[in-house]
Amino acid sequence: MSRSSLAEQLYQLLPAVYRERDRPGGASRGAPPGEGDPPEAGTEPGAVGDLEALLQVYGRFLDRWRNTLDQRYYDNFPDRDPRRDALGRERNCQPWLLPYLARLVDVDLVSPDTEGQREEVTHAVAWRQRKGTRAATEAIAEAVGRMETEVQEGWQRVARTPRIGDPLLPEAHYGVAEPIPGAASPALRARHPGLPTATPDLRYASRPLRTRPGDPAARRTHYAGEPQHWVQANPGGVPCFPGSHQDVSRRTPDLRTPDERRGHYHPRRALLYLAPPEGLCHPDAPGLHWETVWERVGSRDHYRDEEIECHRRPVNWRGETWTCLHLRARTARPLRLVGREQLGAQLDGERVLFRFEHLWFDNRLTLERGRLVLQGCALRHLEVATVGDEGPAVVARGCLFNRLAAPGASAELEYCTVLDQLLATRLWMSDSISVPVPRGRPGGADLPATGCIRYSRLPHVPEAQWQYQGEPSALRLAYSTHRQAVFLDHRFGEPGAGVLHWHCPEAITRGAEDGGEMGAYHDARHQLRWQAVRDKLSHYLPLGIEAVLIPDPRLQCPPPYRA
């Protein structure tokens, strides 16, 4: 049993004579310290006397009491504190207390995750004080949506008729380093950033440029996770990237229903440019070759470094003992493994199990024997060579597949997305998205022989084609949809591959069994966060102003420096 720090303090407060008498094998009862019998031979190291054991009981009670008081103190602070106390606890309130703290400040929590709810409670007063402003709108979108956001007010993007005689603010107010002299030419004076120009000036390019942090006109944005300060150069010029947050040109009012491509330029719109999620295929993902992985791991049963963690050990999987190789990436982004690999020879024994987590397999991966368990992985091409009906050969959760071919084998998919090919003789699929029609045999039109598909998306298959080898297929379908899935990018390996667009049909974005989105990013809750942004802004935007969410990949690329 662990020793208590408070018990040790209590024990040291006792006079030395009592501590000496209480020590096992110490001075005899009643004898002065140092004059009793010598310690008995064979006394166990670390043994305690009766008095010290009694104080240990009191000390453990005092430790729990103090820990309870500390937690009561932490529960008064909803905001996130990165520091931890001596016991490893977070110095903020427990998640279950957030709804009660929200009631104290009259906040309706809409965030689907704990981090967003903490931000809602923490900044409730500050957001109310700046209600209706662009700064508050941007702060709410970033806190609730958990992604970088740039906000443009719709009325500033609408073309207006200039009026002669209206005073213009100095150029320095708009971030211009050198003011335009009064005797300048008309072409130079036309570069004044305050002019309400509607026709872009073809002589100049309009785009953000990075500047020093002390620039009074600078704005601060996180590009690819790095904070950068920038100013808009030549706002009246030709936009280098139309339709992005870098485009500030004025247009004719657009009266159409707003979506990500149209209906933006209207006085009653608030344009929110959001950095789209990269998903499992991040452009800056760290990479390793398979040979490098096996060179590092070698024949060791346990290996760990900054990038990977590997274990070889027996595990109990589905009621049976298997020899397992568990490989997991320790990087913040999925680790990209390059090169073809065949699984099977890395382990000895009849029952072998391969378990991979947080990995991106950019080439073909072949399972020659055993079972494969995947968690949070992206696979370009998975080939299963094992044949049998003794349980599923592939078990995947939260994974993105480009091609999955398991002829003669079983596959079990939960919260997965398949983009190009899905082939399995027996298929169990739940809360997943299959872009192609699932097939049971290579090169044929047969469906899987048996299995169940529930709360998933798959293309429509006529009842007459619901067959396997000329017989009716035993594949069952329940609570699923045939609506077309809309992705940010449908190409495997590209940023945003398999990530559902926020204009995807609700039958898919809310079609999972728990009401969340189907597919590989169910646990990321992208759709729920975007909807939470809309719901939250409906209470903070001025009356009649509508928020329009626009995906903007330019928020992942920092602008160049100003010359």
Automatic annotation (TrEMBL):
Biased composition (Low complexity): 25-46
Superkingdom of the source species: Bacteria
InterPro entries: Tail_protein_I
Sequence segments annotated as region (Disordered): 17-46, 196-219
The name this protein goes by in its record: Tail protein P2 I
Species of provenance: Alkalispirillum mobile
